[in-house]
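Hi team,

Filling in the usual template for the complex we talked about on Friday. All components are listed, including any nucleic acid strands or ligand strings, so the model treats them as one assembly.

SUBMITTER: L.P.
PURPOSE: interface mapping
COMPONENTS: two
RESIDUES: 623
SEQUENCES:
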Amino acid sequence: MDVSRMDESTIKVLIDANLYDLGVVQKTFYWYLKDYAVTVKPIPENNIQIVLQKLEVPLTNSDIENLIIRMKQDLFDFTLRNRIHLETKNVRDLIIAKAFSNSDEFDEIPPGTLRDTVDENKFN
Amino acid sequence: MRSNSIKEFRSFKKADYFSKSTSEFYLLPFRFIQLSENKELVVNDLGDFLIVPYGTVEKIVVKNIDPASDLYMDLIAGHFISETPIPSLIDVMATKYRTRKSFLEGFTSLHIFVVSLRCNHSCHYCQVSRVTGSKLEYDISFENLELGIQHMFRSPSPHLTMEFQGGEPLLAFEKVEFAILRAKELNKQHKKSLNFVICTNSTVITDDIADFLKIHEILISTSLDGPESLHNANRPKTGAQSFKLVIEGINRFREILGKDRVSCLMTTTVKSLDYPKEIIDTYLEYGFSNIFLRPISPYGFALKNYRKNEYETDRFLDFYKSGLEYIIELNKKGVFFTEDFTVILLQKIFTVFPVGYVDLQSPAGLINSVIVYNYDGYVYASDESRMLAESNDFTFRLGHVRDTYHSIFYGEKARKITDHSVIEGLAGCSDCAFQTYCGADPVYHHAVFGDMEGIRPLSEFCKRNMGVFLYLFTLLDTRYDEVFPIFSSWIKHSLSRQV
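RESULT (copied from the run log):
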């Protein structure tokens, strides 16, 4: 992550798109809209450029230091969320399809047989 | 024919099965948020949650959880991970999900009839922009009332609640009387479970009204904003002090209908914010065992008098937390008293049963849970929708009672609203840990942002709900032994009333 100051209220952040998916970056910086005007765009050499312009007071160096810590943490969290989403979306679709199915089209016969376990032991 | 060998599944597994050392598992859908410096909260689509040490989510995602650990067992039991690609309990998971969304099955159950916009109060925060009591053109016509009642019975819901609102509905008592008698007559054919609620300021009650309420077992919802000085300041009434009349009205309603059939709502104004304890004490003093610490809504006169009513969500959250702390202390002393918003959230957190609170549903409760027949015959998607219309914003006007049921309830406008009311697909909400418990509220976001989805980082609705959720989960994390028995008793009490 490369952070540079553009003027007294604006910074530019460059992120390696090999490390962070564009969707992850967009979801991360959506939550910065309360305090910043945000622009996110892919740029050449597989980078993503984010421009953050603080809406009210000028951006201090201390603000920028805190912002870098926050950005790293948020990007990491949204990367985790993305990995969870990608790994689980099919199961989620299946749960919802089963939940809203009004017929038995998604029902499955559970594996095994239904028997009394005590009775079962007689066959040991 | 019986087999002589033990089947591997659906019987007790052998002991060595549980001592296996593999760490192979598969993720199931869940979301998370950092709860404190050392803790994070994970919540799945079914509402199951775990409070775990910070860093656990990363370990789950990279599959670095000791299979012999309690955490692993908790994650399996809570449907956060599975040992097979398709979890063996997937049908149970689907049933839990279906139960959470079962409010959709009955479709519209709450039918609000605004029988008059006239009112004898002049509250500055009035959300429906009442008119003075002499303007008879602001009463619903018998013809439109009849058409609205017929639409109500077209709803597939087996349970119908007919709620009368205003203005002050009892100023148009002949309309309320007609509607209840007509609904009862039609219900002989439809045979639905039918309840009646009148939302009244309790200051307009005659012997005739009292007799009618008693005969038809009507529920009363009234307004009490707190101690006398605060209530009277919030709810001015020409020529009289509202508080005294409201208390007299509440007592009379209780004599007629019984204590349990009279409930109160309060609205939190700027003036209220400094008096959470005093407001709760007033409710206790007059025999109530619950209160809804309810923020003001940005509609009607509340929007016109925005500066007068505006307050920071942080101040409301402080008010809510102070109030809840006081209520917890009361319960610890043996006084059973509940905070309604907390109970709604706790029921969503700890059970799979839908609560019926339209602001926190997905899809949103408008149309599919509630509909409003306004005094002028127009039909709106929710109570807040018609409040917005009084400010000349007709975005949520679905049609007129003269229109067909299909065009009102399933028309183009209804479909457009529904498109924006599913929290699972909204920016900011789709990844939120509290998604399972929260709602979309397209009317609020339209009122504030001019579009139904809004911008979650700027949304006070989002900030308030987030603040309350974080506070409740922090209480459960840090003061579990103290608060859980109290919260548990509230949930049981709430569920028993719903049964």
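MY TAKE: Confidence is low (pLDDT under 50) at residues 1-8 of chain B. Chain B touches chain A at residues 2-12, 26-32, 34, 45, 57-58, 61, 82, 85-88, 90-91, 93-95, 97-98, 101, 427-428, 431, 455-458 (CB under 8 Å).

Thanks, L.
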